[in-house]
């Protein structure tokens, strides 16, 4: 979705601000999937912490809960967020082991 120089976080924020939960969820899902298989723990950690702050993603997930028609998107986003959390925990342990 996003290309070099683009800011998908700003796009998601704009969608949420204008009540466009479906579009916000679709952009979040696309970007999370795109970076899901980043090359290494350092790259993933930089991406996760800077491009997609957790509160914004949780807000998008909450916004999809208000519309029953978005249940599929909500489930997909919840799954990606859970996967993201587990991957971040594993990456943190891996990076901490290098610092020791």
Descriptive overview:
The protein has 100 residues and is mainly α. Helix content is 77%, strand content 0%. The chain is built from 5 helices and no strands. It has helices at residues 8-17, 21-36, 41-50, 54-65, 71-99. Helix 1 (8-17) packs antiparallel against helix 2 (21-36) and helix 1 (8-17) runs parallel beside helix 4. The longest helix is centred in the C-terminal third of the chain and has 29 residues, at 71-99. The protein starts with 7 loop residues before the first helix and ends with a helix. The mean pLDDT is 83.
Could you estimate the helical fraction of the residues in percent?
over 70%
Radius of gyration of CA atoms, rounded to a whole number: 14 Å
Main beta-sheet strand count, sense and barrel state? none
The low-confidence runs, each spanning 5 or more residues with pLDDT under 50, are none
Given the helix and strand composition, which structural class is it?
Answer: mainly alpha
What percent of residues are in strands? under 5%
What is the terminal separation in angstroms? 38 Å
Mean pLDDT: 83
Order of helices and strands: HHHHH
Number of helices: 5
- Shape assignment: elongated
Strand segment count: 0
Write a short abstract of this structure.
With 100 residues, the protein is mainly α. The protein contains five helices and no strands.
């Amino acid at each position: 979705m996003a290309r070099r120089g683009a800011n998908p976080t700003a796009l998601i924020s704009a969608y949420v601000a204008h009540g466009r939960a479906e579009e916000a969820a679709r952009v979040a899902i696309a970007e999370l999937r795109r970076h899901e298989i980043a090359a290494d723990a350092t790259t993933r950690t930089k991406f996760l912490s800077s491009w997609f702050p957790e509160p914004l993603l949780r807000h998008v997930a909450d916004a999809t809960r208000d519309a029953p028609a978005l249940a599929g998107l909500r489930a997909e986003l919840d799954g990606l967020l859970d996967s993201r959390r587990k991957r971040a925990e594993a990456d943190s342990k891996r990076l901490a082991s290098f610092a020791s």
